[in-house]
Amino acid sequence: MFKHLFKNGRAAVIRALELIEQCRKEEKKLGDGTDIHALEEEREKLAKRKKRLAVMRADGDLGQKDYREMKAEIEERLEEIDSAVLAYGEEKAEKERRLFDLAKIEERLNTFIDFKGEKISSEMVDMFVERIIYRGDGNGSDEFLWVMNLSGDLVDTSEKYHISKYSKEYADSLKDDRNFNIVANFLIPLEECRKYCEEEVGRRYVPRYWKPITVKVAVVAES
After folding, report:
1. Element containing residue 64 per DSSP (H, E)
2. Less Cβ crowding at N or C end of the chain, within 10 Å?
3. What pLDDT does 72 receive?
4. Geometric angle at alpha carbon 33, from 31 and 36, rounded to 5°
5. How does residue 4 score in pLDDT terms, banded at 50, 70 and 90?
């Protein structure tokens, strides 16, 4: 995984992060899926309707009671829209704060790692790996999600993910790609598993104990 991320796939990772960042900037929706464009169009229509009501009232085409009721209804909806737009602005500010520092990440991806020995030190793992999630058997392969911290800041995650028993909702969220910034995806075939078993650890390869391994790599936006 380190070789894929730091040697073979650096350019692809940066491109993937740029696309994620671009989507975040262009998206105009609240966390619940509310479309801000639609709300802004509705607000404009309601403002025009409110003016028309005032004209109708002034011309005597609308009674005082009906005018007050209709005006109150419009104003209530306008308040709801204004609150939603304000919430969007706050969410947008938070998203922009959490956008990737692409220059820093690219610098980290250019970190020299000696792959000749095929061994990665525990210090290197602590420096870059935030967590590894085993997602179980999916489509005939064992799937692992590596969540990488490329911010350059060392983070103690020993307590951050210490949950004695995951709820079903949380466990399901860990299996949903939409909850992660996935930048790479590759398969380790059985032949590579066999070579690892026989050449790296010196054990007999027993096919029934092995499956291909799907590896997905995600990057956290901040530590």
Report:
1. helix 64-97
2. C
3. 93
4. 95
5. confident
Q: Tokens 């737009």 belong to which residue?
A: 85
| Number of other residues whose CB lies within 10 A of the CB of residue 184 | 19
| Neighbour count for residue 81 (Cβ, 10 Å) | 18
| Residue 6 identity (one-letter amino acid) | F
Report which of residues 209 and 3 the model is more confident about.
209
pLDDT value of residue 154: 63
**Secondary structure tally for the chain: helices H, strands E:** 8, 4
Predicted TM-score of the model (pTM)? 0.58
Tokens found for residue 50: 């409110």
What is the number of residues in the chain? 223
CB-CB contact of 85 with 36 (8 Å): yes
Q: Classify 201 as helix, strand or coil.
A: coil
Q: Element (H or E) spanning 168, and its range?
A: helix 168-174
- Residues 190, 205: Cα–Cα separation, whole Å: 10
Residue 181 pLDDT greater than 90, yes or no = no
